[in-house]
Structure formats: structure tokens, C-alpha cells
Amino acid sequence: xxxxxxxxxxxxxxxxxxxxxxxxxxxxxxxxxxxxxxxxxxxxxxxxxxxxxxxxxxxxxxxxxxxxxxxxxxxxxxxxxxxxxxxxxxxxxxxxxxxxxxxxxxxxxxxxxxxxxxxxxxxxxxxxxxxxxxxxxxxxxxxxxxxxxxxxxxxxxxxxxxxxxxxxxxxxxxxxxxxxxxxxxxxxxxxxxxxxxxxxxxxxxxxxxxxxxxxxxxxxxxxxxxxxxxxxxxxxxxxxxxxxxxxxxxxxxxxxxxxxxxxxxxxxxxxxxxxxxxxxxxxxxxxxxxxxxxxxxxxxxxxxxxxxxxxxxxxxxxxxxxxxxxxxxxxxxxxxxxxxxxxxxxxxxxxxxxxxxxxxxxxxxxxxxxxxxxxxxxxxxxxxxxxxxxxxxxxxxxxxxxxxxxxxxxxxxxxxxxxxxxxxxxxxxxxxxxxxxxxxxxxxxxxxxxxxxxxxxxxxxxxxxxxxxxxxxxxxxxxxxxxxxxxxxxxxxxxxxxxxxxxxxxxxxxxxxxxxxxxxxxxxxxxxxxxxxxxxxxxxxxxxxxxxxxxxxxxxxxxxxxxxxxxxxxxxxxxxxxxxxxxxxxxxxxxxxxxxxxxxxxxxxxxxxxxxxxxxxxxxxxxxxxxxxxxxxxxxxxxxxxxxxxxxxxxxxxxxxxxxxxxxxxxxxxxxxxxxxxxxxxxxxxxxxxxxxxxxxxxxxxxxxxxxxxxxxxxxxxxxxxxxxxxxxxxxxxxxxx
Length: 738
What we know:
By secondary structure, the chain is of the alpha+beta class. It contains 30 helices and 13 strands. Helix 13 runs parallel beside helix 15 (474-486). 44% of the residues are buried.
């Protein structure tokens, strides 16, 4: 037996006895196994010695008091990280106590008063904390571990009170005691990525969801806490996969797996395929075919363009179990991103049933149609997706991913057509999504269904649950803010969007959510400023430029709007951008240019009734009545295909009828539109245009005032050709100055 001065750590699980009484023996054994397996690697890193395990406690010694405290911090943070990764598991909460003194060592054990004192300190240490004696405090390097006084304590067996200290925690850090997850996970090699994801949020040319709310008002949202973490970006390159080698539906499935993996990792975003955002890393996916019976190999390569360094992960592709293999791809990606970035990833096992290959192919094809239908607002694709998904889910009712996609397809069809049978039919699929281990997308789909059902309170709770599962769900933030706006709570809506930005300060879609809100609320200067930030973050993104152009348009800066739309068209000649630029030319009096652009937009979207209505207005102002009449008729025919019309659509129908000379029917449609919804600025503007064309100047002025009161930009009234008859009216001039 000999003696030496050592730093002693006591580590035990807080509330272990109460926990074991609630669990089975197998669960208790698993808890203890996790406890030791997570902590022992940290002990080795700091040259600690595990003296013994005593059930739910560890007795450790260190020659360096600083190493002992650094190890204590790492152990606390390792368990915190584990809980972030596996939130459904029973959390392990530990307390750690430290003392420095002389001990006797014999037969791989230690004895002495120093051991007893460390044990007494452990007894007063709160769960989740690290307490240390004054001896450790005086001997350690205080620049490496920040501590503060915990006060005087009267410990059992000691005559006088002892001054104890505790290690400080910082709620703004990634982990409470300051460790980096990069240092806690195995095989760490790289960090500091930059990544992004493309979110299509446009102001013109894309339909928006209308949510109807009833009293009582929504309670303030309990949103995720603010973080200082910056966003990071990566691109995924699937060009290395040959379509002849991999069926198209499985190529799409692989893309989904990559997107889902990235979506589950805080702070990481998938960059758009158009290259509009620069990235430091590129993830390449390569399929290597082999001669049967050797399996093919699927490789993921992480490349940094400026350096030759690469890393590869390979998995086996069986050729017979494609669906299961795609799930392995997803799990491999989650592990890959966790190791590379040091960011905690949700690594939960798949919960769906085994799906035969034939049904999984049908599901992937239907998902493709759903994605394309959402982006293009194409009801035919949405209907195809719904019908095929219904076939798959009928055969496999426990297939969660299929139910989620079917729920979304039906909701999109309801929003497009206003067909309430779609909402009713979606009920069993949407409601079942939150049974069991629901993920963020499940809660989001369920929340959308509830919002469309006008159950705003439950919808808000579902959306908050989606944000708890995935704090970077832009759709959840947008829909939750819409709920507050529809409930006449703009301050709460703005708070939701501010939190989205604070959680993702470098992620342009979050800033764009706020900018769109500001534009809709008439906060034009703030909207322009935020859209400029978006363009700085994504300078080659056509959607970002288009939204900035719309902000300029609404603020009356027509030439700036035209220049910005032109820049967007050079990147991506989309029809809605062409139509937006055409609208600016219409206001500027460049009618031939406006007509030419509307014609280009119609070549791509020949069934878009607003494009027909807009070009008809341009033809009418350009003194081409026959062409105007033709396109008004086409616009009216397209509107007649819709089973129900919103107030805005009824007002547009009235405008088209009035401009075509059908005064009686136009007045009936406009009256119905205003009865259906009286707080829509565009409806009142269309009423003002119609009355001005009919010579009812006083009534037109009243409607124009109402439009401005509800948020329509007054500056645009000055350039509206149909309001020229009001130009000399002092009241109209006063309205323009608002």
C-alpha cells in the first residue's frame, strides 16, 4: 500500500433508484450499459483511471486536477449530446463531485479522508452539475475551466462548513459545458461546412393557402430557443448515377434519402441544384455496377473543390431489396453528416413496415408527381399522385410515408379546387400520421389539415410540435404565422418569423419569410432591406431576385423593379417572372413590351387565367379590342373550370366581364365577391377599376381608398391606366401621397 496526491471524481446517475422502480430489468441494464459506454471513452481522453463501478456510480482518479475537470465537462456534454440524438430514450442525468487530496492505493482501490470528502460533496451536488472543493479550485488552471462559487456547505462528518465551487454552464453554447460535438463523436475529420436549401416563396404567380380561423384567439407560441449557430451549406450531386443503371424512381428515392438526412441535422441545408449558392463541399453519389453475383456498390464522396482530399463511404446494393437499401442510404448519410460536421443527427430507426419493391416503386413515382404538382400547381399531376398513393396505402395501410404523401396530395387538391370532399377524404390518413413515432413532416401535414379544418388551436399545437422535432421547418413557421395573421394577431405572427430568423441567421429562406410578411403588412422599406439581404446570400437565385423586384414594385420603384426582374430572367426564364416584368412594363406604359412578355409566359403556361387576363388588359390599353376580347374569354373559360371561386377570383371574373362589356353580370359578380370577403385589398382595387371605367368616379374613389386602407400600395394607383379619370380629383391626389 502506498499514498499519493490525486484528484478524485465521483460520478453517479441522479434519481437512479426512482428510475429503476419504473423500468424493467432489461431497461435498467440498457441504461447502465449506455451510462458506461458513453462515459468511458471520455475518461481515456484525459488519462483518467477508472477505479471501480458501483452500480450507478463511477469512482475515478486523475493526476492532473485540470484534466479531471475537463473530463467532467466532457462527460456531462456527452450525455447531453446523446439525449439530443435520441430524445425518445430515457435521459441519463448525472452529478459529478471532485476533490484533491492524499489517498492510499491498494488492490486497485483507493482509501482515505479525501475519498470520503469527495463522496460527501457528491451528496450535495444537484443533478446535471459539477461541484468541486476549494483544493481543486486552487490547483486547477482556471483559464481552461470557468467556475464560480457555490457557497458554504455543512457536510456530514465534518465540523466546519466548506466552501464549494461549481463549473459554469452557458445556455447559448452548443452543449452546456462548452464541449464541441465534433470532439465527442468518433472519427471526426472535418468541420465548418456551408450549405443551403432552395425554398420557393414567391409573391406573384404562386397560389397561397387561405386559413379560416374562429375565436378564441391563439395563445402565444412556445417556439424553440434562439441559437447563435450559423447555417452551413452543401450541394448534392447525383449526376454520377447513370439512369440506365438505376431506375428513375429509385434515383428519385435516393434524392429523397439525401434530403431527409440533411433535413434532420440542425444547421445544415441542401443547396439548390441551379448553383445559385456557393458551397465549400460537394457530396457526390456514384453507383458502381458489378457482374452478378457480386453486388453493386453505392459510394458517397465528400469533395472540397480547392483540395484533392476526399472521403468515401460505401454500402452494398443488393438489387433485390431496394427499399431497405435506400433506408440504409439514409442512415449512412445521417452518420456521415454527423461525423463530418460534429452536429448531432437524429438516428432513429425506420418505423415503416417492409414494403414490396413493386409498391415502393409506385410510391416513389407518386412522390415525384406530388413534388412536380406542388411546384407547378398542376392539378392533373396532383390527382395522379393521389390516385396512385391511395392504391398503395389501401394495400399497405401501415405504410407511414405513403399515408403522409397521400394526406399532402389531398390537401393540395383541396387548396387548388376548393373541393371539400378532398378535405373529408384526407381525414383518416392525416389523423393517423401522429400515431407512434411521428416526425416533423407528419406533424406539419397534420397541422395543415387541422388549419384547413379551421381548428386553429390544435393546428398551432401540431405546428409547434413540428418545430420541436425540426426547428428549421420553414413551412411550419410560415403556416403558424399565417394562423396568427388570419386571427388578427400580427405581432404574434411577426414574433414567430423573428424566431425563425434568429434560429437560422445565415439561411436566406428564413429571412425571406420575414420579408414576405413585411411586404404583406405594408412595411415596404423593411421588406426591401430584407429582400436585399436574401439576394446577397443567394445572388444567383431567381426566386430571391423576383421577390426583391416585387418589393420594389409595391413601393413604387418601377425602374428598380424592372431591372431586378430582368436580372432574375437572365438566370431563370420562368413564366411568372416574365409576367411580373410585363406588369411593370404595363404600369410604365410600355404596352408592346408587356404584351410580348405575357405571350412568352402563356407559351409555357397556356391555362393560366391571370396571364390571359393581364394580356387582355394590355391589348385593351393598346387599342387592340379584338385581341383583348379573345383573351378575356379565355380567362373566363379557365375560371369556369374551377368548382368554386374565392373572393379574389370572383372579383377578377367581374373585372374580365366588365372589360368585355358585360356590365350587368360584372356587377353581380363583384357584389358577391365583396359579400364573401370585405378585407381583401385587391378586390376593392378591382372594384375601383371597374367603377372608374363605368364613369362612377365618386364610387371608384371610395373603393380605391378602401384598397389603400387594407394595404394596397398607394403609389401604384398613380400609374394604373384605368384610374386616369380620377387624376384631377384633389381627394385622389391626397390618397396618392399616403
